[in-house]
Design a protein that fits this description.
Layout (H helix, E strand, L loop, with lengths): L1 H20 L2 E7 L5 E8 L2 E7 L2 E8 L7 E7 L3 E2 L3 H8 L11 E13 L2 E10 L2 E16 L5 E12 L12 E20 L3
Antiparallel strand pairs: 1-4, 1-11, 2-3, 2-11, 3-6, 4-5, 5-7, 7-8, 8-9, 9-10, 10-11
Amino acid sequence: MKRSVLSLIIAAIAFGLLTSAKAAVETYKIDPVHTWVGFSIAHFFTKVPGYFSKVKGNIVVDRDHLENSTVEAVIEVASITTNTKMRDDDLRSTNFFAAAQFPSMTFKSASWKSTGDNTYAVTGTLTMKNVSKEVVLTVKSLGFGPGMKGAAISGWEASLTLDRRDFDITADQGAIGNSVDVLINVEADLEKLSTAKP
């Protein structure tokens, strides 16, 4: 009888340890209303800013080990905005992004590497104009907690520098620079909970 009780206690402890070892995995849906995908590029000597207003995607987060996280995002190319209609129409045309032929650009992460306090080098594939390139984003986790009406949210900041020629965007050499600075601010809403395998 004592052995049976002891066996039950050991089994219960082992189950408890196994359960606690499983990390909660959270899926956050990018909130397009509170997300900013901005860029700046030189026009002769002066940087001209712009942004894409339509973005969607998911961030799957293991808060105990953020290095296990993943992110996928889709940006609607035609949503490019520089506050000048003539320039925006030109950017959407075949001179630059060819938005009608290539309506979206995508990013899918492959790995997250910790680089400091809440900062990560996130390597993934960026696809634009049907050209896929490996890029590395500098990402900072801004926090997790309650947002509007107490709903759980997460905040993120990311940046990188691209050479537009890598994606077959080569028009107006000399007048427009090739180096594009990208700054992304993301607010994402908790969508669902699941449990990671041990």
